[in-house]
Amino acid sequence: MQLQNPLWAFALKFYSYSEVEACCLALQNEYGMSINRLLYAAWLATQHKLLDTAALQQSSAQQWQHDMTHPLRALRYRVRSIRADEPVLDAFYVTMRKAELEAERIELAYLYALAQSWPEEVGSVELLIKENVKRLLAEDSTSADTLLVPAGQRDLLTSFCRYILTST
After folding, report:
1. Distance (Å, whole) CA 91 – CA 32
2. Angle at 1 between CA 10 and CA 11, to 5 degrees
3. How far apart are CA 61 and CA 59, in angstroms?
4. Which comes out higher in pLDDT, residue 18 or 154?
5. What is the pLDDT of residues 50-69, one digit of tens each?
6. Contact status, residue 59 vs residue 113, Cβ threshold 8 Å
7. What is the dihedral sign for C-alpha 147, 56, 71, 133?
8. How far apart are CA 159 and CA 153, in angstroms?
9. Positive or negative, the Cα torsion across 79, 85, 87, 88?
């Protein structure tokens, strides 16, 4: 596993932009979308690759996210909700944030490895990112019809794609 990789560098760079962070957090908190998967979809487009959702579903990254990243986040959120009444928990909360970030880094390393065997596609980064995001939506949705995506979610995704495209 290669923890220092181009996907990790991409994720750090783009998530550091306040607009990208705000879009990603809103998509995660309001619509349950994975920030790592959004950044992965964007990075794949910059590599001229399409997201293979079938391979993703069977991947170590998917298992890691399910078994490690999501449970750590849920625990951190629980600690966050009680630390206002228990200031002594501040250091513990910070430690949990660091652990969650490291879990996300490992998840991204799995995702990076997964994409290495995928073929390059012909097409613009703009078309590829839109297709990758559409595939993410289809994977996360109970309905494959992306027209049923709530307008607020669609607007956030459009903004996310625009921020990525203007920053690459």
Report:
1. 27
2. 15
3. 5
4. 18
5. 999 999 999 999 999 999 99
6. no
7. negative
8. 10
9. negative
